[in-house]
Design goal:
The structure is a homodimer.
Chain A: H1 3-19, H2 25-35, E1 41-42, H3 43-50, H4 54-66, E2 70-73, E3 82-85, H5 89-116, H6 125-153, H7 156-166
Antiparallel strand pairs in A: 1-3, 2-3
The structure holds a DNA duplex.
Amino acid sequence: MNLEEAKRQFIASWGAFGTNWGINRTMAQIHALLLISPNPQTQDDMMEALNISRGNANMNIRDLIGWGLAERVIIPGERKEYFTAEKDIWKVAKQIVKERKKRELEPMLQLMDKLEQTEGDKRDKEMKTFLEVIAGIKRLGMQADKTLDTLVKAEENWFINNLIKIFR
Amino acid sequence: MNLEEAKRQFIASWGAFGTNWGINRTMAQIHALLLISPNPQTQDDMMEALNISRGNANMNIRDLIGWGLAERVIIPGERKEYFTAEKDIWKVAKQIVKERKKRELEPMLQLMDKLEQTEGDKRDKEMKTFLEVIAGIKRLGMQADKTLDTLVKAEENWFINNLIKIFR
DNA sequence: ATATATTTTCAGAAATATTTGAAAGTTTAA
DNA sequence: TTAAACTTTCAAATATTTCTGAAAATATAT
């Protein structure tokens, strides 16, 4: 397989992969494109490479920036804006974990706190089952929260060396 | 808040939450319903509780079973099939990790292996960047694969006690 | 100031994913 | 058997998400 074909396949697969994780295809594809581009890209570069419209490109580039996965680059003397992505995959993964934690785990824990306050007879079977499930989710969520917090602060080597050793 | 309202909200939120993770709303809602139901439920129970059609219920119940998150229960003397879900959230989480790993991580690593074979001049900047990204993803993926493998074999307490201690 | 380049917005169009419901299939009881 | 109870299937309908493209807004150069 040659490079062009490999890139094409990487971008397509990354997009499909994103779809399974609630990330829109174009955003994942733009990210993939930036990952494998040695130089910063303009919006027009991406529109052409991925065959997408101006509006779509613009919106998804900005979402990527919102996720902390891409950033604007100023190139002196150039009128257009350029964009790049962090290429260290470990940092990328940490960033994604950090964002999803903030956007999803934390709100979910708040909901559990609220649902834990449900009023009713705790000897009732329905009530008991409900509260146990809520408590279980909360407990797991809190563990995950703590663990991921530490994870995003960890350095890669530290992570590999320790975690893999522990998990043997 | 009373129990009925709390249940309603839990089911709705679980469904919305699932959506962010590439899981269809109905499947997540059925799962939520089973989680908080002390007794096994029939398809008709679920159709009524969630206001969904027969076909939708049937298809998603079977998907849940395919994910190992629900199972059929035979109740002697009853004609209808009943369904339950594992209520230990730690086991549920492990099961989800196990399935997603099999369905997504493993195929992704296979793709990286293939893309790593891309032919071309390794001194070319485009080529170099591409191969480095692929290698990075592969490396992270393999770590995750190993780690998650051990995770799904771990017992909850063991996990809590060790991991949280390590990650301090 | 004016023109030109570039970015952003957003209503409608298109694509994708989900759901319905009726018909076909299967199982069980008598 | 036969019939009733129940489950499964899937084409079409619906709902949801994503994408387009042209117009508006903004920024930059002359």
